[in-house]
Amino acid sequence: MGSIYYSIDFVQSAQRYYGGIDTVIFVRYLMGLTLLPLTLAKVAYWIITAFLPVTDYMFFLDLTPEESLKRISGEEDQEAMFKDLEGLMKSHGKALKLAGDWHVIKVDRDVSEVQGEIENILDELDSQQN
Known about the structure:
The chain is mainly α. It has one domain. It is 55% helix and 6% strand. It is built from five helices and two strands; from the N terminus they run ααβααβα. α3 packs across α4 (85-98). The radius of gyration is 16 Å and the shape is globular.
Protein backbone atom coordinates (compact mmCIF):
# COMPACT_ATOMS: atom_id res chain seq x y z
CA MET A 1 0.00 0.00 0.00
CA GLY A 2 2.89 2.32 0.74
CA SER A 3 4.16 2.01 -2.83
CA ILE A 4 0.77 3.16 -4.13
CA TYR A 5 0.93 6.32 -2.03
CA TYR A 6 4.53 6.92 -3.02
CA SER A 7 3.69 6.56 -6.73
CA ILE A 8 0.72 8.92 -6.53
CA ASP A 9 2.77 11.47 -4.57
CA PHE A 10 5.59 11.22 -7.09
CA VAL A 11 3.33 11.90 -10.07
CA GLN A 12 1.53 14.76 -8.30
CA SER A 13 4.82 16.34 -7.21
CA ALA A 14 6.26 16.11 -10.72
CA GLN A 15 3.16 17.81 -12.08
CA ARG A 16 3.14 20.53 -9.43
CA TYR A 17 6.85 21.35 -9.09
CA TYR A 18 8.25 20.52 -12.51
CA GLY A 19 5.35 21.44 -14.79
CA GLY A 20 4.74 17.88 -15.86
CA ILE A 21 6.81 14.95 -16.97
CA ASP A 22 7.46 13.25 -20.29
CA THR A 23 8.67 9.86 -19.12
CA VAL A 24 7.97 7.87 -15.98
CA ILE A 25 9.57 4.49 -15.39
CA PHE A 26 8.08 2.35 -12.65
CA VAL A 27 10.15 -0.63 -11.66
CA ARG A 28 8.24 -3.56 -10.20
CA TYR A 29 4.94 -1.91 -11.10
CA LEU A 30 3.18 -5.27 -10.91
CA MET A 31 5.32 -7.30 -8.52
CA GLY A 32 3.71 -6.08 -5.29
CA LEU A 33 0.31 -6.95 -6.65
CA THR A 34 1.31 -10.53 -7.38
CA LEU A 35 1.47 -11.18 -3.65
CA LEU A 36 -2.31 -10.75 -3.51
CA PRO A 37 -4.90 -13.29 -4.64
CA LEU A 38 -5.56 -12.69 -8.36
CA THR A 39 -9.06 -11.27 -7.80
CA LEU A 40 -7.73 -8.65 -5.37
CA ALA A 41 -4.69 -8.01 -7.56
CA LYS A 42 -6.98 -7.15 -10.49
CA VAL A 43 -8.97 -4.72 -8.34
CA ALA A 44 -5.79 -3.12 -6.97
CA TYR A 45 -4.34 -2.84 -10.48
CA TRP A 46 -7.53 -1.12 -11.68
CA ILE A 47 -7.29 1.36 -8.78
CA ILE A 48 -3.60 2.04 -9.41
CA THR A 49 -4.13 2.64 -13.11
CA ALA A 50 -6.88 5.11 -12.29
CA PHE A 51 -4.25 7.35 -10.65
CA LEU A 52 -0.97 6.56 -12.40
CA PRO A 53 -0.06 7.23 -16.02
CA VAL A 54 -1.06 4.49 -18.46
CA THR A 55 0.01 4.59 -22.10
CA ASP A 56 0.74 2.35 -25.05
CA TYR A 57 4.40 2.61 -24.00
CA MET A 58 4.18 0.05 -21.20
CA PHE A 59 6.62 -2.87 -21.17
CA PHE A 60 6.74 -6.02 -19.09
CA LEU A 61 10.22 -7.54 -19.12
CA ASP A 62 9.34 -11.21 -18.89
CA LEU A 63 11.95 -13.36 -17.18
CA THR A 64 11.00 -16.99 -16.71
CA PRO A 65 10.59 -18.19 -13.13
CA GLU A 66 13.44 -20.66 -13.66
CA GLU A 67 15.86 -17.93 -14.72
CA SER A 68 14.60 -15.66 -11.93
CA LEU A 69 15.39 -18.35 -9.40
CA LYS A 70 18.93 -18.72 -10.78
CA ARG A 71 19.50 -14.97 -10.52
CA ILE A 72 18.16 -14.46 -6.99
CA SER A 73 19.28 -17.71 -5.35
CA GLY A 74 22.50 -16.12 -4.09
CA GLU A 75 20.98 -12.85 -2.87
CA GLU A 76 20.65 -12.65 0.90
CA ASP A 77 18.13 -9.78 1.02
CA GLN A 78 15.37 -11.46 -0.97
CA GLU A 79 12.25 -12.53 0.89
CA ALA A 80 11.83 -16.27 1.33
CA MET A 81 8.66 -16.36 -0.78
CA PHE A 82 10.69 -15.42 -3.83
CA LYS A 83 13.31 -18.09 -3.34
CA ASP A 84 11.30 -21.08 -4.48
CA LEU A 85 10.23 -21.98 -7.98
CA GLU A 86 6.58 -22.52 -7.09
CA GLY A 87 6.22 -19.02 -5.61
CA LEU A 88 7.97 -17.49 -8.59
CA MET A 89 5.72 -19.38 -11.00
CA LYS A 90 2.58 -18.13 -9.22
CA SER A 91 3.80 -14.52 -9.19
CA HIS A 92 4.87 -14.76 -12.84
CA GLY A 93 1.49 -16.08 -13.91
CA LYS A 94 -0.37 -13.31 -12.07
CA ALA A 95 1.94 -10.63 -13.46
CA LEU A 96 1.35 -11.84 -17.02
CA LYS A 97 -2.41 -11.72 -16.49
CA LEU A 98 -2.20 -8.19 -15.11
CA ALA A 99 0.11 -7.06 -17.92
CA GLY A 100 -2.38 -8.03 -20.61
CA ASP A 101 -2.20 -4.72 -22.50
CA TRP A 102 1.52 -4.23 -22.00
CA HIS A 103 4.24 -5.09 -24.50
CA VAL A 104 5.61 -8.36 -23.10
CA ILE A 105 9.30 -8.73 -23.87
CA LYS A 106 11.02 -12.07 -23.28
CA VAL A 107 14.34 -11.29 -21.62
CA ASP A 108 15.90 -14.76 -21.37
CA ARG A 109 18.24 -13.86 -24.24
CA ASP A 110 21.02 -11.51 -25.23
CA VAL A 111 20.57 -7.95 -24.00
CA SER A 112 21.13 -6.53 -27.51
CA GLU A 113 18.19 -8.59 -28.82
CA VAL A 114 15.95 -7.33 -26.02
CA GLN A 115 17.06 -3.76 -26.63
CA GLY A 116 16.43 -4.13 -30.37
CA GLU A 117 12.91 -5.43 -29.81
CA ILE A 118 12.10 -2.57 -27.44
CA GLU A 119 13.52 -0.01 -29.87
CA ASN A 120 11.43 -1.46 -32.72
CA ILE A 121 8.27 -1.23 -30.62
CA LEU A 122 9.11 2.33 -29.59
CA ASP A 123 9.70 3.32 -33.22
CA GLU A 124 6.37 1.78 -34.22
CA LEU A 125 4.52 3.53 -31.40
CA ASP A 126 6.20 6.85 -32.23
CA SER A 127 5.24 6.54 -35.89
CA GLN A 128 1.60 5.96 -34.88
CA GLN A 129 1.67 9.13 -32.77
CA ASN A 130 2.77 11.31 -35.69
